[in-house]
Predict the 3D structure of the following.
Amino acid sequence: MEVELIEIRQFLEQRNPFNYLSQELLDELPKDIEIRYLRRGSTFPPKEGYMYIVRSGAVEVYDGEGELCEKIGEGDVYSVTCQLVNLSQCERGEAVEDSLLYLLSCDRLKALCRNSQAFNEHFSSSVKERLKSAVTTIQESDDPTVAAMMVEVGSLIRKTPITVESGMTIRETAALMSNKDVSSVMVMKDERLVGLVTDRDLRKRCVAIGLTGNEPIDQIMTPDPETIEANTLTAQALMTMTRMRFHHLPVTREGKLIGMITATDLANHQSANSAYLAADVRKAKTVADLVDVSGRLPNLHRRLANASVTARHIGEAVSCLTDAITGRLLEMAEETFGPPPVPYVWMAGGSQARHEQSSHSDQDNALLLSNDFRPEHDGYFADMAKFVSDGLHQCGFVYCPGDAMATNPEWRQPLKVWMSYFDRWIESPEPKSVMLSNIFFDLRPVTGTFELFAPLQQNILKKSQENRIFLAYMMANAMTHRPPLGFFRQFVLERGGEHDDTLDLKHRGIVPITDIARILTLSLGKEPVNTVDRLRACAGTEALSQDMAENLEDALEFIASLRIQHQADQIRRGQEPDNYVPPDNLSELEREHLKHAFKVIQTIQETMVKRFGADKLG
Amino acid sequence: MFTRFLSKEQQRKRALSKVAPGPLAEYLGTPFPSKKLNCRETEIIAIDLETTGLDPGKDDILSIGMVSIVNWSVQLSTSWHRIVQVDKAIPGESAVIHQITDDQAAAGSPIEALMPEVLKRMAGKPMLVHYSPIEQNFMSTVCRKLYGAPFVIPIIDTLEVAQRVYERRNHLIQPGDLRLFNLRPRYNLPQYKAHNALSDALATAELFLAMADNLYAEQPCPLGEFLSRR
């Protein structure tokens, strides 16, 4: 290379995807560049067969209907005309500022692709592959201060696995356990793990019910226990244990049993974890104790984020803890106000119901009461609701600004009234009620008499499936949250070309996906509440292709991970966490991935508007 | 004596009649492009020389940078840059500008070894420079010395073009307004940090694309309108 072209090399080497190229290829690159000037108002691209890099100025690109697709500024790359995989119909545009463009012929681009795999992947991979790799990249980011959370479960295993053969008696098993000083053993049959026995099983399933001890161990074991792979991170193992409420997990490596990990092992290894917090919640005697425990939640959130636990698992961990806190508050309420006059079930709505809470989510809840409820019982449940809601508020789950809480008499009703609510919402929808009721279409029983909930849920799913007008209204409402087009310089680029200073990750990225998943499950009469579970349940149906479901799942994970990182940074700086990210804080790669995620969301929104006839509402 | 009243084409033929066979004769044997050509369809060669001073009689060329505009794009594949061997010590004040040290200059190629390539690259094309007297005078002096005849070439001088733009708009020209790196931002062109013969030639080429497109937006751009009358 002419050393004198070093400035052009330096400009290119900082840009994605040129930063993937080797030093040798970068040295040769400037020689292949052509430079062209476009006056404001000139047609873009000026000629076919080239990719374009904006050196200065700005260019807008439009789709077939003249809608703005993209606005590219300094350092942005436009390669649609060279793309092997055509991602966009946006092939025409104009310079909106006087612009200097660097051109690279598609032939040279293809030659570079042959010489560099990473570079090639940038151009040839599908949206799906890109979002997958985006999710992986963000999970690989590492913070040495939380190295403890990054340890693999396999490395904590000290002892060879203690096992017994299926058919051995309970007594022999107990003798072996006390001999080896372990609290659990695994039961094997033909070198295969068939069960798990713990101290607790010996007490509860044997001694307490008066077995002799001569029965086969198979009778009291937990059959086909969950196992975990040795390369799972401790942080993730904790999530699994908390979620499933297990204390023991057999560990396998490539399917072969290598040992057992217990909650105590993990707690000893890492104290500020959610399993530890969950145990403290159960031990809490007063609301003040609970406040104390939940005060450690932002720190947990931050540490999990640093340990690169997936956004999905963090949402689950926080929601599990909120469930635990709610449950403990209800126990305290019953201790204070006495036993309930009629059966009830405490329901969580919104993000807690979906298992997608963050440490600063507000509370959404409701009380579903037995049909035996009489007006004179309401005083009791009003007191209970106030006690729990105040407790949650003190624990940091602030009051719902929309008053969607059990303290609101409207949301503290017997089953038959709840049934009539949903009938009304579904059968005579109006835009306002749809918006308010959105929260209650993500509904999950937390504590109480779960049997009360089943008929309500069945009724909702049956009615919602049959009612197209309702779905059209839901979809029309979902369209109030649309993703932006992408980014331009330090701004968020909006449809129509407006610029915004910050990106609201929640309302422009996460909410559109949770809305889509909710509407799809309601239209298909599926039960799941968690967004990823919903997408998986609907995947491969006429309404949602397998591919689109996976794209949405990856888009959600990517955007949610960014949000968690953003909030973890804010917590570390002692700021109140929020959802607003200035585009300057995003790397070029993150912007690129976000743009793909937005595109996925936009595509499914447009498909669903047509499918549910939301465009035909007056 | 009366060369300034002759057209460039006539000057070329006159010089050709005097010159001995060799690189300059070959150069002068190539006809100049017609003034009627559309500049967007003409190959134009941007050049910049770094010199030890302003007097071609006393000072030396230190480096030569060239790059061509083909099909109205600057083609970096045509970029060419050479350091010229200079035996004398380089005056400190000029070294500050072009950052060529005595050691680099001593390691360069002698000017007589470089001129055949320079002339070959420039044959039949207009020369694009910012403030042409330096390049014109130094090239002519070298050619007279090496080949016994002057260097004749049609010139596009972006400084002159800028002057015309200012005068047409009745703008008062302030000191420094016409310098290459003060003109570029007016057309939204980036600031290049490097200062060497090639990057200045490139900066001039980009400036010319911008100026011509602004003067002749969406209409043919007649080459003759840009040729220097010098």
Notes: Chain B touches chain A through 29 residues (CB under 8 Å).
